[in-house]
């Protein structure tokens, strides 16, 4: 069975490696260098796995077939409105660094459909489950925003101030999900609190960028910082931010947190 991986970065290739080891025929599409190959990669694919950066995803989605099952592994998409035309779509998210998956380190992710576990499940890659696709999308996007702020605050993993911050961020995420039609209970899964804890510390690139900004508000990076893309989308009104989300509201007021 052929599976198309859209996004040939470190995470896309890590997931593709899992599939290849299980005997699936994997074909990759890299939108940066192979625009003309999209049709060939999608041809005869039983599943399409979306792993491109979230900034690129809205531009790619209109070119995908709506009748093939779509697995969304891109983190940074806040709303499910992008997938309204797709007949069968599901989400996979959680605290999994690409290098850990490549090296077979035990990893727990969240899946919104049993098909994901059937495809990707191994003795080291396991899943918890929810049908709350919107909530899983929101958790995957919001945790990156809170990771940038953790870096800005210079919080060290497993200190008292770090635990207090993570607890406050998780509570805000519960309120954000509930206010936007998702289940606040989704925050308790791997895609929520599990990923938040992993991302609010090194080697997370969002946390690392926050550390750089702490020293220099004009710091730039050539790496994808999904938290900035998510902030831009929140500023454009993709979700409603309740008054209780004080950390997020403070970040929205920081003019130097702009996607380059």
Overview of this structure, please?
- The longest helix has 20 residues, at 133-152.
- The protein is built from eleven helices and seven strands.
- Strand 6, helix 5 and strand 7 form a beta-alpha-beta unit.
- The protein has two domains: 2-129, Rossmann fold; 138-252, N-(1-d-carboxylethyl)-l-norvaline Dehydrogenase, domain 2 (Orthogonal Bundle).
- It has 260 residues and is α/β, with parallel strands linked by helices.
- The protein is globular.
- Strands 2-1-3-4-5-6-7 form a seven-stranded mixed β-sheet, with helices on both faces.
Mean pLDDT: 94
CATH topology of the largest domain: Rossmann fold
Oligomer: single chain
Shape: globular
**Largest beta sheet: what is the strand line-up?**
2-1-3-4-5-6-7
What's the architecture of the largest domain in CATH terms?
Answer: 3-Layer(aba) Sandwich
Salient structural properties:
260 residues; alpha/beta; Rossmann fold; N-(1-d-carboxylethyl)-l-norvaline Dehydrogenase, domain 2; 2 domains; 11 helices
């Amino acid at each position: 069975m052929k599976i198309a991986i859209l996004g040939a970065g470190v995470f896309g290739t890590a997931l593709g490696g899992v599939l290849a080891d299980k005997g699936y025929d994997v074909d990759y599409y890299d939108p940066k260098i192979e625009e003309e190959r999209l049709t060939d990669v999608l041809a005869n694919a039983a599943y399409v796995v979306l792993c491109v950066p979230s900034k690129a995803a809205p531009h790619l989605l209109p070119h995908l077939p709506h009748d093939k099952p779509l697995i969304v592994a891109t983190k940074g998409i806040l709303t499910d409105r992008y997938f309204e035309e797709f007949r069968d779509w599901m989400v996979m998210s959680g605290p999994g660094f690409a290098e850990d998956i490549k090296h077979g380190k035990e990893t727990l992710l969240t899946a919104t459909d049993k098909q994901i576990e059937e495809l990707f499940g191994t003795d080291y890659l396991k899943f918890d489950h929810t049908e709350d696709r919107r909530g899983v999308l929101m958790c995957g996007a919001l945790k990156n925003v809170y990771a940038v702020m953790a870096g800005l605050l210079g919080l060290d993993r497993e200190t008292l101030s770090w635990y207090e911050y993570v607890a406050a961020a998780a509570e805000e995420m519960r309120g954000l999900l509930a206010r936007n039609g998702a289940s606040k209970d989704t925050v308790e899964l791997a895609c929520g609190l599990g990923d938040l804890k992993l991302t609010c510390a090194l080697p997370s690139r969002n946390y690392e960028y926050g550390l750089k900004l702490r020293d220099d508000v004009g710091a730039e990076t050539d790496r994808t910082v999904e938290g900035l893309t998510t902030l831009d989308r929140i500023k454009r009104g993709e979700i409603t931010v309740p008054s209780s989300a004080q950390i997020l509201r403070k970040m929205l007021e920081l003019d130097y947190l702009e996607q380059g």
